[in-house]
Every structure is written in C-alpha cells, then in structure tokens.
Amino acid sequence: MINAIGGSSNLAIFQKHLGSLTPSNEPENPVLERSSSLKGDSAEFDTKRLEIEAFSQGIKGANEFIGALQSADVALKKMGKEGENLAWIHQSLQDPLMDSSTQEALKEQLQESQEKISSLAQNSSFMGKKLFDRELVNEVGGERFSLSLQDPSSLGEESMSYIEGKRVEISQTLSKVSEAISKGNSTPNPNNYNFEEFDASAFMKLF
C-alpha cells in the first residue's frame, strides 16, 4: 500500500518537475480516501454479535492475519473428525426402531463430541488472540478482509458442513490476501525515486 508522500521539500521537487501535468479532476490521494471510507464500515461490524478482532495494517498485520487464518484452519481440521461423528450420530438417532439403551449411548457420544469441538474452539488462539466466536478483520492494500468463526459445537448436525465450508472460505481468503500483498509489493514507492532522473509519466501512475 502506497504511503502518502511527506515533507514540503519533496513536494516542492515534485511540483517543479510536474508543471502542468498535475491532474486537476482526480482526488489528491485516492488510496487515503478508500482507507477513510473503510473506517466507516467498522461501525457496522461492531454491531454484530461476534466480537471484532482487528489486526494492524501493513505487512506485519497481514502476516499476523495469515497466521491466524492458518491456525484456525488447523483447529477446524481437528474438529472435522468430531464433526463427522456428530453427523453420523444425529442421523442414527433418527432410526425409529432403535432401542432406548442404544439411544442413550449415542447421546452420550454426541455430548462427548460436542465437548471436544467446544474445547478445541475455546483453546484455539494465535499470538494471544482468540480465533472462535470472533470476526477476524484485516486491511491490506486498501482492501478489507474479514472472516467470522463460530464455535461449531453449537450447530448440531450442521457442524460438519460448517467446518468444511469455513475451511474452503479460509483457503479463498488466504489466496486473496496473498494477491493483495503481491499487488502492494509491486507498486512503485515514491521514496525510491532518483529526482535527478525524474520520470513525470511514471510518477503520474502513482495516482
């Protein structure tokens, strides 16, 4: 993400070389405008039931966000086995011919699987940040990414489909974040310009 150019001396040098090339109908810094509009969105997220866990902007925050998503995926993978058990038990309990003793045994297994999933969710964290019953949020290159994670143990027979769906969503989000980071790294940095060999057309591409 491009940082706003600071310092009156740098601006004076740019203005000297730009002359009449300075655009008049475009926003002075569209990157900052997009960032400001995103700040307004956070109020909407704060009204949701899940607690917001926001990561800092920049590469450090992006790396932490990626680490949190990967840790959540590992936890969901572990939950998957218990999720399969829950789905099987719920289906088995629909059998009208099942005797009461078998039903009780299955209900005990059901509770055990739910408790294991809940324990995994409650103990899953990354760098001290809880991962479940949270909305994980990060901004990369002016683009906002978020992922909500609910404790699957409360979803009953839908636990497994939720776990599988979230793992797919995590994979897709990681891919998008990686792409956003790559775009940010390929963006020219105005601080690296050689002012003696200033290229006005290249500078204009920054805006």
TrEMBL record:
It comes from the Bacteria. Pfam families: FliS_cochap. This is Uncharacterized protein. Residues 20-40 are annotated as: Disordered. Gene3D superfamilies: Flagellar FLiS export co-chaperone, HP1076. InterPro entries: FliS_cochap (IPR032411), FliS_cochap_sf (IPR038315). It comes from Wolinella succinogenes (strain ATCC 29543 / DSM 1740 / CCUG 13145 / JCM 31913 / LMG 7466 / NCTC 11488 / FDC 602W) (Vibrio succinogenes).
